Amino acid sequence: LVEIICSSCQSQMFDNFHLKAFKQFWKPNPEQPAMCVYGEAYASDCAAEFEQTVYESISESVSGEEEVENIVIWVMVWSDSTHLAQFGTASLWPIYIYISNLSKYIRCNRSAFTANHLVYIPSI
Q: Sorted alphabetically, which InterPro entries does this protein's record hold (predicted)?
């Protein structure tokens, strides 16, 4: 898991990562109050609260490491059954890892190759 996170942070896709949680609002017209828009992991209430907790728990930086920035990497785990052949019943349950700091519009694009294969579980 650590290898997947490190390689994702070193890839070219890292430029598209959202490194800080935030809230997005939409105001349909001036007479109505602004509404919070939910749709990304990094834009959730949970993300903002968790990041705040993590940053508060980090002690002061060690001398010489003032330039190092701490970020939270959001990880989604996914699994589904896949058939291995067009005949027979051979199948596996691959477990995928997605980095949720990436927008769903990029993450869900198959040509972006953002799914990371963690493990394959054989069917019994």
A: Plavaka (IPR041078)
